[in-house]
Amino acid sequence: KNYDNILKIILIKKQKMILLSTSSLSWYWLHKIFKFAHKAWFDGLDLSLDKSNFDCWDEEYIKELSDSFDLPVLSITAPSRWLNEERVDKIIKIATKLSSQLVTFSPPHFSDKNITWFTKYLSKVKRDTHISIAVQNVEPKFLFFIIPEYRNSTLNEIKRVTWDTSLDLSYVDLSSWMDILKAQKMLWSSIKNIFLSDKHWQKSWLLPWMAWGWISYLPLESFFMKLKTSWYNGFVSLNVNPKELWVWTEEKVLQNLDYA
To answer: How many distinct helices (H) and strands (E) make up the chain?
Structure first.
């Protein structure tokens, strides 16, 4: 497959790390997610922190899983809501314990009363630690058609927070003036993690290259070619809807992970 060959070229030449986002298997316990990722030969995990999942906030437990499966948690994605400086510190504590290289945050929600954790504190955390602190793009939603759901969320704005970013392909607004190629060009060398998925009309976080004829809806082939020519040296994290992996059948999950 052309896409597989492109990915192999990128990975071999620049020693890329292919990660599995735990959100792709969010219906399973962490132990089972580690097991799936290990069997499917992923290089590591992107730990997606969920406010309601207490296990993912237990760094001691996660470290035991990581050591047991010999699978590092190289990246962490913070919750998209309810953040403050105290919770940022907890996330950095988890990242430090797990020796994670990257933590990704979302821009503040419009309902957040205090956003200094985003506008000031994240840059301080980046200066004070060895961890890369990135801000990711978010879905361009509007309340009452005029109020952005997330503040400071344009591509230029997220890049200026810490000068490190993560790019979620399913969150890119597809329009006459924007697509994943233009988003990559705008963020360029600031990108540290790419959340990989496919997108078709209103359906997001689809398993890549599963459209008719084993192609993708998004221009993923061109996207990865541009990554190659730009000497991209960050992570690529598979981040899809759990339904795409047939999470109710373990054998099917492994088949889809191996294919991805």
So the answer is: 10, 12
- CA–CA dist 13, 24 (Å, integer): 27
Kindly report the pTM of this predicted structure. 0.89
CA distance 208 to 218: 9
Strand-pair partners of 105: 135
Q: Give the Cβ contact number of residue 66 at 10 Å.
A: 23
Residue 156 has pLDDT above 50, yes or no: yes
Identify the band that residue 148 occupies on the pLDDT scale cut at 50, 70 and 90: confident
The span from the CA of 134 to the CA of 111, in Å, is 22
Residues in the chain: 260
Closest listed residue to residue 167, CA positions, set 190, 150, 151: 190
Cα separation, 96 vs 50, in Å, equals 18
**Residue 166 contacts residue 135 (beta carbons within 8 Å):** yes
* CA–CA dist 110, 108 (Å, integer): 6
Q: Can you tell me which residue has the tokens 């981040």?
A: 239
The token pair at 21 is 């986002």
Q: For the segment 180-217, what is each residue's pLDDT rounded down to a tens digit? A: 999 999 999 999 999 999 988 778 888 887 765 566 78
How many angstroms separate the CA atoms of 226 and 172, rounded? 17
What does the alpha-carbon distance between residue 124 and residue 72 come to, in Å, rounded to a whole number? 26
